Amino acid sequence: MQQNTDNKLETRELDAICLNESRLQHKWHSNLKYLLVGLLFGIVFVKAEAASWFRIQEMFRLQSFHMFGLIGSAVAVGFISVFLIKKFKIRTIYGEPIQFSTKTFNKGQIYGGLIFGFGWAITGACPGPLFAQIGSGATVIAVTLLSAIAGTWVYGYFREKLPH
């Protein structure tokens, strides 16, 4: 029984869980800041054309550099941010330390990446701009959103049986 428990813990460590989750309790209205940031993020997605089905199709057809430049700049900002957080030991706004854990490569990441990429190419939407696409009037993307939710549920149901 101990080996099975250890295996589950090891599998759980591979998840992209939030190790920095705050233990502080906040009132319900403190979550409104996340709504505001989400709305602003959606506006930026629409204005930068990251939520544009046509731009996504151009990227997968290698017809335009627009999305590659957008994704590349996001990766660069993320790289620099993580570097600065580690170098200066930056803490959260509540003074809690930010921790980074190393992840090991496994073959499930290749399968998941392929499924994600195929879904992105077929639907013209990845999880980031789904809500922005729906909010901008492309209500047919609700089918993609429901499919993403169903896929997440199926993954969670079969998770222990999948290669990790």
From TrEMBL:
Domain of life per record: Bacteria
Q: What is this protein called?
A: Transporter
- What InterPro entries does its record include? Sulf_transp_TsuA/YedE
| Entry keywords, A to Z | Membrane, Transmembrane, Transmembrane helix
Q: Does the keyword Plastid apply?
A: no
Q: Which residues cross the membrane?
A: 32-53, 65-85, 110-132, 138-158
